[in-house]
Specification:
- The protein is built from six helices and five strands.
- It is of the alpha/beta class and 152 residues long.
- A five-stranded parallel β-sheet has the order 2-1-3-5-4, with helices on both faces.
- Helix 1 links the parallel strand 1 (4-8) and strand 2 (30-32).
- The longest helix has 18 residues, at 134-151.
Length: 152
């Protein structure tokens, strides 16, 4: 695994720090975009868009976004062509996000999951690989429909 890119809005900076440390403790390279940095007024749409554009430009296969619920981050990241993001608040969904849907971006809500659950979600998502099989045609269909949508 190359590196994991991560970012969060002001509702989730604490959980982001926990996840960054968790990944580093496993020897995983982490790039914290820290979009809020000098811009505490930056809201989740800007944070998510910034990360999703990086995923798109660098063809990254793993990134994490955290906000209060994970919902807004996923919605915004999915507006960037070629980026698939999904909200996960349990291990099974995290596994399926990658195994069935080949999503590059995991989103979570700091107001929904605790630190230990968040770590297990991240671990499950990182361990999972796209399984192909029956899911391949579905993912290819999503990519095709996405391209048609972005043409307009």
């Amino acid at each position: 695994m190359k590196k994991i890119v991560i970012d969060a809005d002001d509702a989730a900076t604490g959980l982001k720090k926990v996840i960054v440390e968790h990944l580093k403790s496993k020897g995983i390279a982490v790039e914290d975009l820290d979009h809020l940095g000098g811009k505490p007024e930056a809201a989740y749409p800007e944070v998510a868009y910034n990360l999703a554009r990086k995923v798109q430009a660098e063809k990254l296969d793993r990134a994490i976004l955290i906000c209060g619920t994970g919902l807004g981050m996923a919605m915004m990241a999915n507006k960037v062509e070629g980026v698939f993001a999904g909200v996960c608040h349990d291990v099974y969904s995290a596994e399926r996000l990658r195994a069935s849907n080949n999503a590059q971006v995991l989103t979570m809500g700091a107001r929904v999951v605790g630190e230990e659950v968040a770590k297990t979600i991240v671990d499950a998502w990182l361990k999972a690989e796209f399984q192909g099989g029956r899911s391949t045609a579905k993912v290819e269909s999503m990519r095709k429909l996405e391209k048609e949508s972005f043409k307009k």
